[in-house]
Design brief:
Elements (H helix, E strand, L loop, with lengths): L1 H23 L3 E7 L23 E9 L5 E3 L2 H4 L6 H6 L9 E7 L6 H7 L2 H18 L3 E5 L13 H16 L5 E7 L2 H7 L2 H7 L2 E5 L21 H5 L7 H10 L7 E6 L1 E7 L11 E4 L11 E3 H7 L6 E3 L4 E6 L2 E5 L2 H13 L4 E5 L16 H13 L1
Parallel strand pairs: 1-2, 1-15, 2-4, 4-5, 5-6, 6-7, 7-8, 8-15
Antiparallel strand pairs: 2-3, 9-10, 9-11, 9-14, 12-13, 13-14
Helix pairs in contact: 5-6, 12-13
Length: about 400
């Protein structure tokens, strides 16, 4: 029994040392958990126990939904609730391994659309319902805070220009309710310069929020009719020909800062997944080349136009990376498949970029598409660890 106890104490000690290392940089690493990944097949199945609780300073459980009266909607009760897989409790229990870890619950996401959120935040009574339910939920489940991922105010299926200020009202009311308890309030926001003015009162968000998680990805994808990298740091000359000279991470981040966002609150979004394309002509692999549609689905993510880094490194271990020196990103060509993705080198570039802007840290979407099993030879979580390793060299 003494040996067992000593072993347990040693493991806890290792976790605490690793946790102190990620905390010591002073930078946030805010990582999202896609709860539906528990249903993926084979090596793609990702559950809460696959999360290394020392990798990130903050982890967010996605997603809660919203009902038209402002009430919380539990999107997957079987995965989340105590009479199913008990996901909420297991997620919060990650703090047992790293007491410094902040566990957050996130509401919204792409599939929730925008209209319901627009209607709720426009109505004072419904805002009160949402505020009270969120507060009660956090207290009941012992989360450390709440992340609002409305995609997006005054866009998609809501074109109400009042969304911009009503979102501020909602966030102020949540913040006032959270402050006596010390709860964290963050929001995931659009990273494209041309969309920011439509959706966000930047100075107000910067005043209210503890973290501004900028979604610095999805600039291109199979929703276009041409090839483009979805995490380009800078534009290249050809982008100007298509009126996309501002359609990149740098222009978006600079605009958030220009409008008054506190850089210490901005977390630069890092994508661990690729956007992929099926080329119309396999011999034309240039940016803006015409496409037939999204790339072939992978065995785990199983979506047209998307591959996880873990899928790419398994499927194409010997296919060379092609570097775009202007955009500072990499892609692969496999037959008629064009795969734009992040690797350790491009993430290192983005970390150094964020440091040059004095940003507060990084937001990662998401755990499950990194090589979390470490089967491709770079150890477990090579992409997220690239953030940590680069930060460590700056201390």
């Amino acid at each position: 029994m003494k040996l067992l106890a000593a072993g347990i104490l040693f493991i806890i000690g290792v976790y605490l040392v690793q946790a102190r290392n990620v905390q010591s940089s002073g930078k946030t690493i805010y990582c999202y958990f896609e709860s539906w990944t528990v249903y993926r097949p084979g090596n793609g199945k990702f559950d809460i126990e696959d999360i290394d609780p020392t990798l990130c300073t903050h982890v967010a459980f996605t997603f809660l939904g919203i009902q038209e009266n402002g009430s919380i909607s539990i999107l997957d009760p079987w995965e989340s609730d105590s009479d199913g897989l008990n996901g909420f409790q297991r997620f919060v229990n990650l703090k047992n391994q790293n007491p410094n870890l902040k566990v957050i619950v996130s509401m919204g996401g792409w599939n929730e659309m925008s209209e319901k959120y627009s209607e709720v935040v426009a109505d004072a009574t419904k805002r009160t319902v949402l505020k009270n339910e969120v507060l009660a939920f956090i207290q009941a489940h012992k989360f450390d805070g709440f992340d609002f991922d409305w995609e997006y105010p005054a866009r998609r299926d809501s074109e109400n220009p009042e969304d911009k200020q009503n979102f501020v009202l909602m966030l102020r009311e949540l913040k006032a309710a959270f402050e006596p308890h010390g709860y964290i309030l963050s929001a995931a926001v659009n990273g494209a310069k041309r969309n920011i003015d439509v959706s966000y009162d930047v100075p107000s968000l910067s005043e209210i929020l503890d973290h501004i998680n900028v979604m610095s990805y999805d600039f291109h994808g199979e929703f276009d009719d041409y090839v483009g990298h979805h995490t380009l740091l800078y534009s290249s000359a050809i982008d100007a020909e298509y009126n996309n000279s501002d359609w990149n991470i740098n222009d978006g981040i600079n605009y958030w800062l220009e409008l008054g966002a506190d850089p210490s609150k901005i977390n630069l979004g890092i994508a661990t997944y690729a956007r992929t394309f099926t080329l119309e002509d396999a011999s034309n692999t240039a940016l803006y080349a015409p496409i037939k549609g999204g790339g072939t689905p992978g065995p785990y993510t199983r979506m047209d136009g998307v591959l996880g880094y873990n899928e790419i490194c398994e499927l194409y271990p010997n296919v060379a990376d092609i570097y775009d020196a202007d955009q500072k990103v990499y892609h692969k060509i496999v037959g008629d498949q064009w795969i734009g993705y992040e690797n350790v080198a491009s993430i290192t570039t983005k970390v150094n970029y964020a440091l040059s802007k004095n940003l507060g840290g990084f937001m990662v979407w998401s755990f499950d598409t990194d090589d979390f099993l470490g089967i491709c030879g770079g150890g477990r979580y090579p992409l997220i660890n690239a953030i940590k390793t680069t930060l460590a060299t700056k201390n």
